[in-house]
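Onboarding guide, step 5: your first structure request.
Type a short instruction followed by the sequence, for example:

Predict the 3D structure of this protein.
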Amino acid sequence: MLKDLIEKHLLEVQKPSRYIGGEVGSVIKDKSKVDVRFAFCFPDTYDIGMSHLGMKILYSLTNERENYWCERCFAPGEDFEAVMRENNIPLYALESLDPIKDFDFIGFTMQYELSYTNVLNMLDLAGIPIFAADRTQELTQIVVAGGPCVCNPEPLADFFDIFILGEGEEVNLELMDLYAEMKKQGASRDEFLRSAAHIEGVYVPKFYHFMYKEGGTIDRLEVSDGAPEVVHKRIIKGFDKVYYPDNFVVPFTEIVQDRASVEVLRGCIRGCRFCQAGFIYRPFREKHTDTICKEVKCLCENTGYDEVSLASLSTSDHSEIDPMLTALLDYTVSERINLSLPSLRVDNFSESLLEKIKKVRKSGLTFAAEGGTQRLRDVINKNVSEEEIMNTCRIAFEGGYSSVKLYFMMGLPTETDEDIEGIADLANRIIDLYYSIDNRPKGRGVQISISCATFVPKPFTPFQFEPQDTREMIEHKQKLLLDTVKTKKIKVSYHNPEVSMLEVILAKGDRRLCKAVYTAWQKGCKFDSWDEYFNFGKWTEAFAECGIDTSFYANRRFEYDEILPWDHLDYYVSKEFLIRENKTAHKSITTPNCRLRCSGCGVNKKVGRECF
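The system replies with C-alpha coordinates like these:
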Protein backbone atom coordinates (compact mmCIF):
# COMPACT_ATOMS: atom_id res chain seq x y z
CA MET A 1 0.00 0.00 0.00
CA LEU A 2 1.07 3.56 -0.72
CA LYS A 3 0.39 4.44 2.93
CA ASP A 4 3.01 1.97 4.13
CA LEU A 5 5.57 3.34 1.68
CA ILE A 6 4.87 6.92 2.78
CA GLU A 7 5.07 6.12 6.50
CA LYS A 8 8.32 4.24 5.98
CA HIS A 9 10.07 7.47 4.95
CA LEU A 10 8.27 10.13 6.99
CA LEU A 11 10.91 10.41 9.71
CA GLU A 12 13.53 11.23 7.06
CA VAL A 13 12.01 14.67 6.46
CA GLN A 14 11.16 17.85 8.32
CA LYS A 15 7.56 18.30 9.44
CA PRO A 16 6.32 14.80 8.53
CA SER A 17 2.81 15.74 9.66
CA ARG A 18 2.50 17.74 6.43
CA TYR A 19 2.35 14.52 4.45
CA ILE A 20 0.16 11.99 6.25
CA GLY A 21 -3.29 13.58 6.71
CA GLY A 22 -5.64 12.40 9.43
CA GLU A 23 -6.14 15.87 10.96
CA VAL A 24 -9.20 16.73 13.02
CA GLY A 25 -11.92 18.00 10.69
CA SER A 26 -10.67 16.22 7.56
CA VAL A 27 -13.36 14.47 5.55
CA ILE A 28 -13.10 10.74 4.85
CA LYS A 29 -15.55 9.01 2.51
CA ASP A 30 -16.14 5.57 1.04
CA LYS A 31 -14.78 6.05 -2.48
CA SER A 32 -16.97 3.25 -3.81
CA LYS A 33 -19.94 5.52 -3.14
CA VAL A 34 -18.38 8.61 -4.69
CA ASP A 35 -19.17 9.72 -8.27
CA VAL A 36 -16.67 12.57 -8.61
CA ARG A 37 -13.30 12.97 -6.90
CA PHE A 38 -11.70 16.40 -6.78
CA ALA A 39 -8.07 16.94 -5.73
CA PHE A 40 -7.79 20.52 -4.46
CA CYS A 41 -4.13 21.36 -5.04
CA PHE A 42 -2.31 24.32 -3.54
CA PRO A 43 0.96 24.95 -5.43
CA ASP A 44 3.00 25.70 -2.34
CA THR A 45 3.78 23.98 0.94
CA TYR A 46 1.21 22.68 3.42
CA ASP A 47 2.05 25.47 5.88
CA ILE A 48 1.03 28.12 3.36
CA GLY A 49 -1.79 26.29 1.61
CA MET A 50 -3.57 25.34 4.81
CA SER A 51 -3.80 29.05 5.62
CA HIS A 52 -5.80 29.75 2.46
CA LEU A 53 -9.44 30.58 3.18
CA GLY A 54 -10.71 29.76 -0.31
CA MET A 55 -9.54 26.18 0.00
CA LYS A 56 -11.34 25.80 3.32
CA ILE A 57 -14.61 27.10 1.84
CA LEU A 58 -14.59 25.02 -1.35
CA TYR A 59 -13.32 21.91 0.44
CA SER A 60 -16.23 21.95 2.87
CA LEU A 61 -18.79 22.98 0.25
CA THR A 62 -17.89 20.15 -2.12
CA ASN A 63 -17.87 17.57 0.67
CA GLU A 64 -21.41 18.56 1.65
CA ARG A 65 -22.43 16.55 -1.42
CA GLU A 66 -22.45 12.87 -0.44
CA ASN A 67 -21.38 11.64 -3.87
CA TYR A 68 -18.53 14.15 -4.34
CA TRP A 69 -15.25 13.98 -2.46
CA CYS A 70 -12.80 16.87 -2.29
CA GLU A 71 -9.35 16.07 -0.93
CA ARG A 72 -6.30 18.26 -0.31
CA CYS A 73 -2.90 18.16 -1.95
CA PHE A 74 0.13 20.43 -1.48
CA ALA A 75 3.56 20.88 -3.01
CA PRO A 76 6.04 18.73 -1.09
CA GLY A 77 9.11 20.33 0.43
CA GLU A 78 12.41 19.68 -1.29
CA ASP A 79 13.36 16.93 1.19
CA PHE A 80 10.14 14.97 0.76
CA GLU A 81 10.12 15.48 -3.01
CA ALA A 82 13.51 13.76 -3.14
CA VAL A 83 12.08 10.84 -1.14
CA MET A 84 9.08 10.65 -3.48
CA ARG A 85 11.19 10.56 -6.62
CA GLU A 86 13.68 8.07 -5.21
CA ASN A 87 10.94 5.68 -4.06
CA ASN A 88 8.43 6.16 -6.90
CA ILE A 89 5.82 7.72 -4.60
CA PRO A 90 3.35 9.63 -6.79
CA LEU A 91 1.78 12.87 -5.62
CA TYR A 92 -1.23 11.92 -3.50
CA ALA A 93 -4.18 13.42 -1.65
CA LEU A 94 -4.06 13.65 2.13
CA GLU A 95 -7.48 12.23 2.97
CA SER A 96 -7.24 8.88 1.13
CA LEU A 97 -3.50 8.83 0.37
CA ASP A 98 -4.53 7.84 -3.17
CA PRO A 99 -2.52 9.16 -6.16
CA ILE A 100 -4.20 12.26 -7.58
CA LYS A 101 -3.70 10.88 -11.12
CA ASP A 102 -6.68 8.62 -10.32
CA PHE A 103 -8.98 11.59 -9.63
CA ASP A 104 -11.59 13.12 -11.93
CA PHE A 105 -10.48 16.72 -11.32
CA ILE A 106 -7.06 18.04 -10.40
CA GLY A 107 -7.78 21.61 -9.35
CA PHE A 108 -5.21 24.31 -8.56
CA THR A 109 -5.81 27.63 -6.85
CA MET A 110 -3.56 30.25 -8.44
CA GLN A 111 -2.96 32.94 -5.84
CA TYR A 112 0.35 34.38 -7.08
CA GLU A 113 2.35 34.25 -10.29
CA LEU A 114 5.49 32.90 -8.67
CA SER A 115 3.77 29.56 -8.03
CA TYR A 116 3.51 28.67 -11.75
CA THR A 117 6.51 26.34 -11.87
CA ASN A 118 5.20 24.51 -8.80
CA VAL A 119 2.10 23.55 -10.81
CA LEU A 120 4.26 21.87 -13.43
CA ASN A 121 6.33 20.15 -10.77
CA MET A 122 3.22 18.80 -9.04
CA LEU A 123 1.76 17.49 -12.30
CA ASP A 124 5.07 15.78 -13.02
CA LEU A 125 5.18 14.24 -9.53
CA ALA A 126 1.61 13.03 -10.04
CA GLY A 127 2.42 11.32 -13.35
CA ILE A 128 -0.07 13.52 -15.21
CA PRO A 129 0.98 14.86 -18.66
CA ILE A 130 2.09 18.45 -18.13
CA PHE A 131 0.72 19.72 -21.45
CA ALA A 132 -3.06 19.50 -21.90
CA ALA A 133 -2.55 18.46 -25.52
CA ASP A 134 -0.75 15.30 -24.36
CA ARG A 135 -3.67 14.02 -22.25
CA THR A 136 -5.89 11.29 -23.62
CA GLN A 137 -9.52 11.62 -24.66
CA GLU A 138 -10.55 9.57 -21.63
CA LEU A 139 -12.82 11.60 -19.33
CA THR A 140 -10.53 11.79 -16.32
CA GLN A 141 -7.67 13.94 -15.00
CA ILE A 142 -9.40 17.22 -15.90
CA VAL A 143 -6.84 19.83 -14.83
CA VAL A 144 -8.52 23.08 -13.74
CA ALA A 145 -7.48 26.32 -12.07
CA GLY A 146 -9.15 29.22 -10.32
CA GLY A 147 -8.06 32.16 -8.20
CA PRO A 148 -6.95 35.73 -8.89
CA CYS A 149 -4.17 34.80 -11.33
CA VAL A 150 -6.61 33.32 -13.83
CA CYS A 151 -7.80 36.81 -14.71
CA ASN A 152 -4.90 36.44 -17.17
CA PRO A 153 -4.32 32.69 -17.45
CA GLU A 154 -2.54 32.77 -20.82
CA PRO A 155 1.01 32.02 -19.54
CA LEU A 156 -0.50 28.77 -18.14
CA ALA A 157 -2.94 28.03 -20.97
CA ASP A 158 -1.00 25.08 -22.45
CA PHE A 159 -1.08 23.19 -19.15
CA PHE A 160 -4.77 23.45 -18.15
CA ASP A 161 -7.99 22.06 -19.55
CA ILE A 162 -10.20 24.62 -17.82
CA PHE A 163 -9.92 27.93 -15.98
CA ILE A 164 -12.70 29.04 -13.62
CA LEU A 165 -13.16 32.80 -13.53
CA GLY A 166 -14.44 34.54 -10.41
CA GLU A 167 -16.03 33.02 -7.33
CA GLY A 168 -16.25 29.25 -7.20
CA GLU A 169 -19.05 28.41 -4.76
CA GLU A 170 -21.61 27.80 -7.50
CA VAL A 171 -19.64 27.18 -10.69
CA ASN A 172 -17.46 24.43 -9.21
CA LEU A 173 -20.49 22.31 -8.36
CA GLU A 174 -22.10 23.02 -11.73
CA LEU A 175 -18.93 21.80 -13.44
CA MET A 176 -18.86 18.62 -11.36
CA ASP A 177 -22.57 18.02 -12.00
CA LEU A 178 -21.95 18.24 -15.74
CA TYR A 179 -18.97 15.92 -15.45
CA ALA A 180 -20.91 13.30 -13.47
CA GLU A 181 -23.68 13.28 -16.06
CA MET A 182 -21.38 13.14 -19.09
CA LYS A 183 -19.21 10.45 -17.50
CA LYS A 184 -22.31 8.23 -17.25
CA GLN A 185 -22.91 8.86 -20.95
CA GLY A 186 -19.37 7.76 -21.83
CA ALA A 187 -18.39 11.17 -23.18
CA SER A 188 -14.84 12.02 -24.26
CA ARG A 189 -12.64 14.77 -22.82
CA ASP A 190 -13.31 17.11 -25.76
CA GLU A 191 -17.06 16.50 -25.63
CA PHE A 192 -17.04 17.42 -21.96
CA LEU A 193 -14.89 20.52 -22.56
CA ARG A 194 -17.22 21.73 -25.34
CA SER A 195 -20.19 21.47 -22.98
CA ALA A 196 -18.29 22.96 -20.03
CA ALA A 197 -17.37 26.02 -22.07
CA HIS A 198 -21.02 27.09 -21.95
CA ILE A 199 -21.14 27.25 -18.16
CA GLU A 200 -20.78 30.90 -17.17
CA GLY A 201 -17.36 31.44 -15.65
CA VAL A 202 -15.68 28.50 -17.42
CA TYR A 203 -12.85 29.26 -19.87
CA VAL A 204 -11.49 26.42 -22.03
CA PRO A 205 -8.24 27.76 -23.53
CA LYS A 206 -7.90 25.17 -26.32
CA PHE A 207 -10.88 26.77 -28.09
CA TYR A 208 -9.20 30.20 -28.27
CA HIS A 209 -6.47 30.90 -30.82
CA PHE A 210 -4.32 34.05 -30.89
CA MET A 211 -2.85 35.58 -34.05
CA TYR A 212 0.01 38.06 -33.66
CA LYS A 213 1.21 41.10 -35.56
CA GLU A 214 4.76 41.43 -36.80
CA GLY A 215 5.65 43.68 -33.85
CA GLY A 216 4.50 41.02 -31.35
CA THR A 217 1.17 42.48 -30.24
CA ILE A 218 -2.05 40.52 -30.71
CA ASP A 219 -3.72 40.90 -34.10
CA ARG A 220 -6.92 38.97 -33.41
CA LEU A 221 -8.46 36.12 -31.45
CA GLU A 222 -10.27 33.27 -33.19
CA VAL A 223 -12.73 31.11 -31.22
CA SER A 224 -13.65 27.54 -32.19
CA ASP A 225 -16.00 24.70 -31.20
CA GLY A 226 -18.87 27.06 -30.43
CA ALA A 227 -17.20 28.52 -27.35
CA PRO A 228 -18.35 32.02 -26.29
CA GLU A 229 -16.48 35.02 -27.67
CA VAL A 230 -16.23 36.49 -24.16
CA VAL A 231 -16.11 34.54 -20.88
CA HIS A 232 -17.77 36.27 -17.92
CA LYS A 233 -16.65 35.75 -14.33
CA ARG A 234 -19.00 34.31 -11.73
CA ILE A 235 -20.06 36.12 -8.60
CA ILE A 236 -22.16 35.24 -5.58
CA LYS A 237 -25.06 37.67 -5.32
CA GLY A 238 -26.54 36.71 -1.94
CA PHE A 239 -23.26 37.08 -0.08
CA ASP A 240 -24.78 37.31 3.41
CA LYS A 241 -26.42 33.92 2.85
CA VAL A 242 -23.56 32.26 0.98
CA TYR A 243 -22.30 28.91 2.22
CA TYR A 244 -19.62 29.17 4.90
CA PRO A 245 -18.07 26.17 6.67
CA ASP A 246 -18.84 25.58 10.33
CA ASN A 247 -15.61 23.63 10.74
CA PHE A 248 -12.02 23.74 9.46
CA VAL A 249 -9.39 21.05 9.15
CA VAL A 250 -7.09 21.68 12.14
CA PRO A 251 -3.44 20.93 11.30
CA PHE A 252 -1.14 18.93 13.55
CA THR A 253 1.70 21.34 12.77
CA GLU A 254 1.87 25.12 12.99
CA ILE A 255 0.92 26.90 9.76
CA VAL A 256 1.41 30.47 8.58
CA GLN A 257 -2.02 31.67 9.72
CA ASP A 258 -2.84 29.25 12.50
CA ARG A 259 -6.27 30.52 13.40
CA ALA A 260 -9.92 30.46 12.44
CA SER A 261 -10.90 32.98 9.79
CA VAL A 262 -14.23 34.57 8.91
CA GLU A 263 -14.83 36.49 5.70
CA VAL A 264 -16.64 39.75 6.51
CA LEU A 265 -16.86 41.30 3.05
CA ARG A 266 -15.87 40.85 -0.59
CA GLY A 267 -14.76 43.51 -2.99
CA CYS A 268 -13.55 47.01 -2.19
CA ILE A 269 -15.02 50.49 -2.50
CA ARG A 270 -11.70 52.33 -2.80
CA GLY A 271 -10.54 52.06 -6.40
CA CYS A 272 -6.80 52.30 -5.73
CA ARG A 273 -5.47 52.23 -9.28
CA PHE A 274 -2.67 49.73 -8.61
CA CYS A 275 -4.79 47.15 -6.75
CA GLN A 276 -5.93 44.19 -8.82
CA ALA A 277 -7.96 42.61 -6.02
CA GLY A 278 -9.91 45.83 -5.56
CA PHE A 279 -11.24 45.55 -9.12
CA ILE A 280 -11.53 41.83 -9.89
CA TYR A 281 -13.53 41.13 -6.71
CA ARG A 282 -16.14 43.82 -7.38
CA PRO A 283 -18.98 44.36 -6.58
CA PHE A 284 -18.60 45.25 -2.91
CA ARG A 285 -20.69 42.99 -0.67
CA GLU A 286 -20.68 42.54 3.09
CA LYS A 287 -22.13 40.22 5.69
CA HIS A 288 -24.38 41.44 8.47
CA THR A 289 -22.94 41.66 11.97
CA ASP A 290 -25.21 38.85 13.22
CA THR A 291 -23.95 36.55 10.47
CA ILE A 292 -20.31 37.35 11.24
CA CYS A 293 -20.75 36.81 14.97
CA LYS A 294 -22.53 33.50 14.41
CA GLU A 295 -19.75 32.24 12.11
CA VAL A 296 -16.99 33.35 14.50
CA LYS A 297 -18.61 31.59 17.45
CA CYS A 298 -19.33 28.42 15.46
CA LEU A 299 -15.80 28.09 14.10
CA CYS A 300 -14.09 28.76 17.43
CA GLU A 301 -16.25 26.22 19.21
CA ASN A 302 -15.83 23.53 16.55
CA THR A 303 -12.09 23.92 15.89
CA GLY A 304 -10.83 24.89 19.34
CA TYR A 305 -8.86 27.83 17.93
CA ASP A 306 -8.22 30.64 20.41
CA GLU A 307 -7.65 33.21 17.66
CA VAL A 308 -9.89 34.36 14.83
CA SER A 309 -9.16 36.79 12.01
CA LEU A 310 -11.57 38.94 10.03
CA ALA A 311 -10.79 38.39 6.36
CA SER A 312 -11.39 41.03 3.69
CA LEU A 313 -9.62 43.55 1.50
CA SER A 314 -10.51 46.36 3.92
CA THR A 315 -12.31 45.30 7.08
CA SER A 316 -12.57 48.86 8.41
CA ASP A 317 -14.76 49.73 5.37
CA HIS A 318 -17.52 47.50 6.71
CA SER A 319 -20.56 49.72 7.23
CA GLU A 320 -21.10 48.27 10.73
CA ILE A 321 -17.45 48.17 11.81
CA ASP A 322 -17.97 49.67 15.28
CA PRO A 323 -21.04 47.64 16.33
CA MET A 324 -19.52 44.56 14.71
CA LEU A 325 -16.31 44.83 16.74
CA THR A 326 -18.30 45.59 19.90
CA ALA A 327 -20.39 42.45 19.44
CA LEU A 328 -17.36 40.31 18.58
CA LEU A 329 -15.36 41.58 21.54
CA ASP A 330 -18.20 40.76 23.92
CA TYR A 331 -17.73 37.13 22.88
CA THR A 332 -13.97 36.88 22.23
CA VAL A 333 -12.88 38.70 25.40
CA SER A 334 -15.16 36.59 27.60
CA GLU A 335 -13.88 33.39 25.93
CA ARG A 336 -10.24 34.57 25.93
CA ILE A 337 -10.09 34.42 22.15
CA ASN A 338 -7.77 36.79 20.32
CA LEU A 339 -9.35 38.80 17.50
CA SER A 340 -6.95 39.51 14.63
CA LEU A 341 -7.43 42.54 12.38
CA PRO A 342 -5.63 43.33 9.10
CA SER A 343 -3.88 46.59 8.20
CA LEU A 344 -6.05 49.66 8.61
CA ARG A 345 -7.19 52.65 6.54
CA VAL A 346 -5.97 55.98 7.83
CA ASP A 347 -9.05 57.86 6.66
CA ASN A 348 -11.51 55.96 8.85
CA PHE A 349 -9.31 55.42 11.89
CA SER A 350 -10.84 56.80 15.08
CA GLU A 351 -10.34 56.84 18.82
CA SER A 352 -13.30 54.49 19.15
CA LEU A 353 -11.72 52.02 16.72
CA LEU A 354 -8.37 52.33 18.49
CA GLU A 355 -9.91 51.48 21.85
CA LYS A 356 -11.32 48.28 20.35
CA ILE A 357 -8.04 47.43 18.64
CA LYS A 358 -6.09 47.88 21.88
CA LYS A 359 -8.14 45.06 23.37
CA VAL A 360 -6.95 42.64 20.69
CA ARG A 361 -3.60 43.91 19.44
CA LYS A 362 -0.58 44.82 21.56
CA SER A 363 2.02 45.30 18.84
CA GLY A 364 2.48 48.30 16.54
CA LEU A 365 -0.08 49.53 14.05
CA THR A 366 0.24 49.15 10.27
CA PHE A 367 -1.03 51.64 7.70
CA ALA A 368 -0.73 51.69 3.91
CA ALA A 369 0.26 55.17 2.74
CA GLU A 370 1.61 53.81 -0.59
CA GLY A 371 2.99 57.15 -1.85
CA GLY A 372 5.44 59.56 -0.22
CA THR A 373 3.84 62.77 -1.52
CA GLN A 374 0.28 63.98 -1.86
CA ARG A 375 0.67 64.31 -5.63
CA LEU A 376 1.60 60.64 -5.96
CA ARG A 377 -1.13 59.51 -3.59
CA ASP A 378 -3.57 61.35 -5.85
CA VAL A 379 -2.11 59.65 -8.94
CA ILE A 380 -2.77 56.21 -7.46
CA ASN A 381 -6.17 57.28 -6.08
CA LYS A 382 -5.26 56.45 -2.51
CA ASN A 383 -7.62 59.21 -1.35
CA VAL A 384 -5.61 59.76 1.81
CA SER A 385 -4.26 63.17 2.79
CA GLU A 386 -1.17 63.91 4.84
CA GLU A 387 -3.44 65.52 7.43
CA GLU A 388 -5.30 62.19 7.80
CA ILE A 389 -2.03 60.28 8.09
CA MET A 390 -0.78 62.63 10.80
CA ASN A 391 -4.10 62.59 12.65
CA THR A 392 -4.12 58.79 12.61
CA CYS A 393 -0.60 58.67 14.03
CA ARG A 394 -1.56 61.22 16.68
CA ILE A 395 -4.50 59.07 17.79
CA ALA A 396 -2.20 56.04 17.94
CA PHE A 397 0.52 57.83 19.92
CA GLU A 398 -1.96 59.37 22.35
CA GLY A 399 -3.48 55.91 22.72
CA GLY A 400 -0.18 54.46 23.96
CA TYR A 401 1.53 53.26 20.78
CA SER A 402 5.12 54.19 20.01
CA SER A 403 5.71 52.23 16.81
CA VAL A 404 4.05 52.52 13.41
CA LYS A 405 4.65 50.56 10.21
CA LEU A 406 3.97 52.25 6.88
CA TYR A 407 3.62 50.46 3.54
CA PHE A 408 4.79 52.21 0.38
CA MET A 409 5.32 51.27 -3.24
CA MET A 410 8.28 52.21 -5.38
CA GLY A 411 8.19 52.64 -9.14
CA LEU A 412 4.63 53.94 -9.38
CA PRO A 413 3.55 55.73 -12.58
CA THR A 414 4.81 59.36 -12.80
CA GLU A 415 7.04 58.81 -9.73
CA THR A 416 10.04 61.13 -9.33
CA ASP A 417 12.99 61.34 -6.96
CA GLU A 418 11.02 63.93 -5.00
CA ASP A 419 8.33 61.32 -4.30
CA ILE A 420 10.97 58.91 -2.97
CA GLU A 421 12.47 61.59 -0.74
CA GLY A 422 8.92 62.32 0.40
CA ILE A 423 8.75 58.87 2.04
CA ALA A 424 11.58 59.80 4.41
CA ASP A 425 10.20 63.31 4.89
CA LEU A 426 6.82 61.91 5.94
CA ALA A 427 8.45 59.52 8.40
CA ASN A 428 10.47 62.39 9.90
CA ARG A 429 7.32 64.47 10.36
CA ILE A 430 5.68 61.55 12.16
CA ILE A 431 8.71 61.37 14.50
CA ASP A 432 8.40 65.11 15.19
CA LEU A 433 4.70 64.63 15.85
CA TYR A 434 5.44 61.92 18.41
CA TYR A 435 7.75 64.15 20.46
CA SER A 436 5.28 67.06 20.29
CA ILE A 437 2.60 65.07 22.13
CA ASP A 438 2.64 65.66 25.89
CA ASN A 439 0.80 62.45 26.78
CA ARG A 440 2.89 60.18 24.55
CA PRO A 441 4.13 56.88 26.05
CA LYS A 442 6.80 57.75 28.61
CA GLY A 443 10.23 56.19 28.59
CA ARG A 444 9.93 54.88 25.04
CA GLY A 445 11.36 56.18 21.79
CA VAL A 446 9.38 56.18 18.58
CA GLN A 447 10.04 53.64 15.83
CA ILE A 448 8.82 54.08 12.24
CA SER A 449 9.16 51.08 9.95
CA ILE A 450 9.00 51.70 6.21
CA SER A 451 8.33 48.77 3.89
CA CYS A 452 8.66 49.43 0.15
CA ALA A 453 7.37 46.99 -2.46
CA THR A 454 8.21 47.37 -6.14
CA PHE A 455 5.13 48.34 -8.14
CA VAL A 456 3.82 45.58 -10.44
CA PRO A 457 1.23 46.69 -13.03
CA LYS A 458 -1.52 44.06 -13.13
CA PRO A 459 -4.39 43.18 -15.52
CA PHE A 460 -7.81 44.67 -14.84
CA THR A 461 -6.43 47.76 -13.13
CA PRO A 462 -6.13 51.31 -14.49
CA PHE A 463 -2.37 50.77 -14.40
CA GLN A 464 -2.47 47.66 -16.62
CA PHE A 465 -1.19 49.84 -19.45
CA GLU A 466 1.83 51.11 -17.51
CA PRO A 467 5.42 49.88 -17.84
CA GLN A 468 7.34 48.68 -14.81
CA ASP A 469 10.51 50.53 -13.86
CA THR A 470 13.71 48.88 -15.02
CA ARG A 471 16.07 47.29 -12.54
CA GLU A 472 18.41 50.31 -12.78
CA MET A 473 15.56 52.71 -11.99
CA ILE A 474 14.43 50.70 -8.95
CA GLU A 475 17.94 50.29 -7.59
CA HIS A 476 18.49 54.05 -7.94
CA LYS A 477 15.31 54.74 -5.97
CA GLN A 478 16.19 52.22 -3.27
CA LYS A 479 19.59 53.85 -2.76
CA LEU A 480 18.04 57.32 -2.77
CA LEU A 481 15.61 56.32 0.00
CA LEU A 482 18.39 54.84 2.14
CA ASP A 483 20.53 57.96 1.64
CA THR A 484 17.59 60.21 2.58
CA VAL A 485 16.90 58.47 5.89
CA LYS A 486 19.19 60.07 8.48
CA THR A 487 17.95 58.55 11.75
CA LYS A 488 17.89 55.11 13.34
CA LYS A 489 14.34 55.80 14.42
CA ILE A 490 13.36 54.93 10.84
CA LYS A 491 13.90 51.40 9.56
CA VAL A 492 13.68 50.71 5.82
CA SER A 493 13.05 47.41 4.07
CA TYR A 494 12.35 46.72 0.41
CA HIS A 495 11.78 43.85 -1.99
CA ASN A 496 14.14 42.18 -4.42
CA PRO A 497 13.39 43.96 -7.72
CA GLU A 498 14.09 40.77 -9.71
CA VAL A 499 11.13 39.06 -8.04
CA SER A 500 8.84 41.92 -9.11
CA MET A 501 10.32 41.82 -12.61
CA LEU A 502 9.38 38.16 -13.01
CA GLU A 503 5.97 38.80 -11.48
CA VAL A 504 5.04 41.46 -14.03
CA ILE A 505 6.23 39.35 -16.98
CA LEU A 506 3.98 36.49 -15.89
CA ALA A 507 1.11 38.79 -14.91
CA LYS A 508 0.94 40.63 -18.26
CA GLY A 509 2.21 37.84 -20.51
CA ASP A 510 0.47 35.97 -23.30
CA ARG A 511 0.32 32.35 -24.36
CA ARG A 512 3.81 32.49 -25.89
CA LEU A 513 5.20 32.45 -22.34
CA CYS A 514 4.01 28.87 -21.71
CA LYS A 515 7.15 27.50 -23.34
CA ALA A 516 9.34 29.71 -21.13
CA VAL A 517 7.53 28.60 -17.95
CA TYR A 518 8.09 24.98 -18.97
CA THR A 519 11.75 25.63 -19.80
CA ALA A 520 12.35 27.40 -16.48
CA TRP A 521 10.83 24.42 -14.64
CA GLN A 522 13.06 22.04 -16.59
CA LYS A 523 16.04 24.10 -15.43
CA GLY A 524 15.02 23.51 -11.83
CA CYS A 525 12.88 26.56 -11.05
CA LYS A 526 10.27 26.00 -8.33
CA PHE A 527 9.13 27.78 -5.18
CA ASP A 528 9.99 31.03 -6.95
CA SER A 529 8.32 33.09 -4.21
CA TRP A 530 10.86 31.76 -1.69
CA ASP A 531 14.11 33.73 -1.41
CA GLU A 532 16.18 30.58 -0.92
CA TYR A 533 14.90 29.02 -4.16
CA PHE A 534 14.39 32.04 -6.43
CA ASN A 535 16.87 32.01 -9.31
CA PHE A 536 16.32 34.84 -11.76
CA GLY A 537 19.36 33.72 -13.76
CA LYS A 538 17.60 30.47 -14.74
CA TRP A 539 14.49 32.38 -15.71
CA THR A 540 16.56 34.77 -17.81
CA GLU A 541 18.12 31.77 -19.59
CA ALA A 542 14.68 30.28 -20.21
CA PHE A 543 13.32 33.49 -21.70
CA ALA A 544 16.37 33.84 -23.93
CA GLU A 545 16.20 30.23 -25.16
CA CYS A 546 12.51 30.69 -26.00
CA GLY A 547 13.10 33.96 -27.82
CA ILE A 548 11.15 36.01 -25.29
CA ASP A 549 11.95 39.72 -24.99
CA THR A 550 10.97 40.35 -21.37
CA SER A 551 10.93 44.15 -21.84
CA PHE A 552 8.02 43.64 -24.28
CA TYR A 553 5.86 42.60 -21.34
CA ALA A 554 7.50 44.38 -18.41
CA ASN A 555 8.87 47.73 -19.62
CA ARG A 556 6.64 48.67 -22.54
CA ARG A 557 3.56 50.84 -22.27
CA PHE A 558 0.52 48.93 -23.55
CA GLU A 559 -1.57 51.05 -25.91
CA TYR A 560 -5.21 51.78 -25.14
CA ASP A 561 -6.42 50.32 -28.47
CA GLU A 562 -4.18 47.25 -28.21
CA ILE A 563 -5.78 43.80 -27.88
CA LEU A 564 -4.58 42.57 -24.50
CA PRO A 565 -4.12 38.88 -23.66
CA TRP A 566 -7.04 39.08 -21.22
CA ASP A 567 -9.49 41.23 -23.20
CA HIS A 568 -11.74 38.23 -23.95
CA LEU A 569 -12.26 37.65 -20.21
CA ASP A 570 -14.88 39.79 -18.49
CA TYR A 571 -14.36 40.69 -14.83
CA TYR A 572 -17.25 43.19 -14.99
CA VAL A 573 -15.01 46.30 -14.93
CA SER A 574 -15.00 47.79 -18.43
CA LYS A 575 -11.83 48.55 -20.37
CA GLU A 576 -13.26 51.98 -21.14
CA PHE A 577 -13.37 52.73 -17.40
CA LEU A 578 -9.79 51.55 -16.92
CA ILE A 579 -8.63 53.78 -19.77
CA ARG A 580 -10.53 56.73 -18.29
CA GLU A 581 -9.01 56.12 -14.87
CA ASN A 582 -5.52 55.82 -16.37
CA LYS A 583 -5.91 59.20 -18.06
CA THR A 584 -7.26 60.68 -14.82
CA ALA A 585 -4.25 59.33 -12.94
CA HIS A 586 -1.84 61.13 -15.23
CA LYS A 587 -3.65 64.37 -14.37
CA SER A 588 -3.19 63.64 -10.63
CA ILE A 589 -6.98 63.70 -10.15
CA THR A 590 -8.70 61.40 -7.68
CA THR A 591 -11.95 59.45 -8.05
CA PRO A 592 -14.26 59.25 -4.99
CA ASN A 593 -14.87 55.86 -3.40
CA CYS A 594 -17.94 53.91 -4.43
CA ARG A 595 -20.00 54.86 -1.38
CA LEU A 596 -19.57 58.56 -2.12
CA ARG A 597 -20.25 58.43 -5.85
CA CYS A 598 -20.54 55.80 -8.58
CA SER A 599 -17.57 56.12 -10.93
CA GLY A 600 -19.21 54.11 -13.73
CA CYS A 601 -16.85 51.13 -13.72
CA GLY A 602 -19.51 48.97 -15.37
CA VAL A 603 -20.11 46.48 -12.56
CA ASN A 604 -23.64 47.66 -11.77
CA LYS A 605 -24.71 47.07 -15.38
CA LYS A 606 -23.42 43.51 -15.23
CA VAL A 607 -25.09 42.64 -11.92
CA GLY A 608 -28.28 44.44 -12.84
CA ARG A 609 -28.50 46.68 -9.79
CA GLU A 610 -26.89 49.62 -8.06
CA CYS A 611 -23.89 48.61 -5.96
CA PHE A 612 -25.12 50.74 -3.04
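Each response can be followed by summary notes, for example: The radius of gyration is 25 Å.
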